[in-house]
Amino acid sequence: MSEDKNAEDLPLGWEVCESGDGSIFYYNRALEVSTSERPGRTHVERFVTAKPSTLRGNGTEPSNSNANSDEEESDEDFDDKPSSPKGDLLRRRLILSQARTASTKDVNGKEDVPERGMVGSGSQSMPNSPEMVDKKKQRSKSSLTKLLFKKKDKSDALERGLEDLDWEKDRLNEAEEWIKSEEAANREKKWDAPPKPEEIDAKSLTVLDIGCLTYGFNPEYGKGHKTEESNLALEEKSKHTNYFQTMFSSAEHHNFVGDDDILGPIVVSIQSNTALPPDQKNYNVIVRTKKGDERLVVPRLPTLDSPEACIKYLRNNTNSLQTVRFSRVVEPKAHQDLVNSLLSYEKQLIQKNYKFGVLYVRDGQKEENEYFNNVEYSEGFREFLKVIADEIPLKGFTGFAGGLDCRNSTGLTSFHTTFENIQVMLHVSTLLPYFPKDLQQVERKRHLGNDVVMIIYKEGPSVAFDPRVVASQFNHVFAVVQPEGDKLRVCLANKFGVKPYTPNLPEPCLFEKNSYLKRFLLTKLINGERAAMYAPDFRGTLARTREVLLRSMVEKHNVPEQRSGLRRLSDAFKTQHVLNSGRKKSISSSGNRLTLSEGP
């Protein structure tokens, strides 16, 4: 025997042999099979379908029609056939063995003894006998029935799943639409490009000095706007209502507290909206941080069947909350204590009443001290005050006083009004106490200098009002009113950081002395003060106030064992934090005891 150079390409188990006359043949030692044709992949596939012992069996070659048909079918299955008689015999034996194996098993893989007579004696049932046909029909019918029931169950489950998915999809679409509408409403607005002096009415330039543009003010001269009475609406109404008191405090809800290195202390309130139908219930959520309160509506999906699941949903879908560890306040007494703290928190931060300063300026005056030293005023100024408010005696006044003393120490009278359920008190400079020896009139500046919005009533067109003259960090919105015949011309100047607000000044910005002037001016000024809260001077102060109030609540109710959203703390753990000074602070815990130690 000598190996051919291509022997390495042969299937596993085959080798090249040389006969005495020099001819080449192929031999498989394991199967004891030889062939003159080079074995291909079909030989391998054929011989591995049965054990070698089966291939080498001594069965008798079948002579019935079934074997012939099997042989005919097998001829189509094999492209390459051994030419030797021994190879053909082994091939027929393999087919016969496969037929016997298939005939002795039913559809479930169990042996059926009567069917072994497919190639056996006549004493056994033949495959085409009536008994075998009935059995096959029964088995087929049973299998088909089981299959139909399985398919029906799967179809019902699929239909129910599709209905749930459709419902979840609708809820998620509603949530996405709500989020988009909120984002559109809260998207930072930009002021219109400032008009050029030649585009402004010359009379308006005598009311407000356009030079304030170079110092970051955004002036409003009414250029290019038309305002109708139907457009007079207060902005951010929902943010200035006692939402927690109305929707949460008297209803069943759940509170969670947490802390974060960036957001600081966080308090989350979750309440299920039971007013909606059962299949449309939502979670009303308030997320309180030092940046402000976010009011959310989370769809109550089948997977969100608990407040903890809702918290997890918020963490997974809000980037800023993904690392926050929350604790649920469960104990009834602690829960009620936190509710009282949240009610007080809401009451302190929501502004329901407003105070505006009113400064009287004579024609030709330019300096701040001149403004505050005016004692006498014109009849037109008094008429203007009566249009927008009502004169009231301060002594014994029980309404919103805006910091004025109701025992006559801050004057005898003032002007007050109620607009859209909002009380407005005016700090009128000429009605506040006057001290002749005080050139700066500190007592008057104490009230008007702490007002966010100031009305400037300016007599005459000689000198345009310049808001830079008034030295106050609190004054951010200046509404300048100047009489023009029987009407009043109004212009506004907004300090840097005040976001745009409505209603826009009409063109021309002239108003009759009537109720429309009151509605327009009070709406404009209330919206202006709300817009001023986004300015850096107020935003930082409000953030610090919120953080202090929330910190006290979180430190009191943040129980580690009740934290949700992350795994609970183990009974014994140790964490390390690097302080600003570079020292390490280690917190060790065992049971309910905490130990604090600082390293080098």
UniProtKB/TrEMBL annotation:
<dbReference type="InterPro" id="IPR036020">
    <property type="entry name" value="WW_dom_sf"/>
</dbReference>
<dbReference type="InterPro" id="IPR001202">
    <property type="entry name" value="WW_dom"/>
</dbReference>
<feature type="compositionally biased region" description="Polar residues">
    <location>
        <begin position="587"/>
        <end position="600"/>
    </location>
</feature>
<feature type="compositionally biased region" description="Basic and acidic residues">
    <location>
        <begin position="38"/>
        <end position="48"/>
    </location>
</feature>
<feature type="region of interest" description="Disordered">
    <location>
        <begin position="580"/>
        <end position="600"/>
    </location>
</feature>
<dbReference type="GO" id="GO:0005737">
    <property type="term" value="C:cytoplasm"/>
</dbReference>
<dbReference type="GO" id="GO:0051056">
    <property type="term" value="P:regulation of small GTPase mediated signal transduction"/>
</dbReference>
<feature type="region of interest" description="Disordered">
    <location>
        <begin position="35"/>
        <end position="142"/>
    </location>
</feature>
<dbReference type="Pfam" id="PF21022">
    <property type="entry name" value="Rap-GAP_dimer"/>
</dbReference>
<dbReference type="InterPro" id="IPR035974">
    <property type="entry name" value="Rap/Ran-GAP_sf"/>
</dbReference>
<dbReference type="InterPro" id="IPR050989">
    <property type="entry name" value="Rap1_Ran_GAP"/>
</dbReference>
<keyword id="KW-0343">GTPase activation</keyword>
<feature type="domain" description="WW">
    <location>
        <begin position="8"/>
        <end position="41"/>
    </location>
</feature>
<feature type="compositionally biased region" description="Acidic residues">
    <location>
        <begin position="69"/>
        <end position="79"/>
    </location>
</feature>
<feature type="compositionally biased region" description="Basic and acidic residues">
    <location>
        <begin position="80"/>
        <end position="91"/>
    </location>
</feature>
<dbReference type="InterPro" id="IPR000331">
    <property type="entry name" value="Rap/Ran_GAP_dom"/>
</dbReference>
<protein>
    <submittedName>
        <fullName>GTPase-activating Rap/Ran-GAP domain-like protein 3</fullName>
    </submittedName>
</protein>
<dbReference type="Pfam" id="PF02145">
    <property type="entry name" value="Rap_GAP"/>
</dbReference>
<dbReference type="GO" id="GO:0005096">
    <property type="term" value="F:GTPase activator activity"/>
</dbReference>
<feature type="domain" description="Rap-GAP">
    <location>
        <begin position="342"/>
        <end position="553"/>
    </location>
</feature>
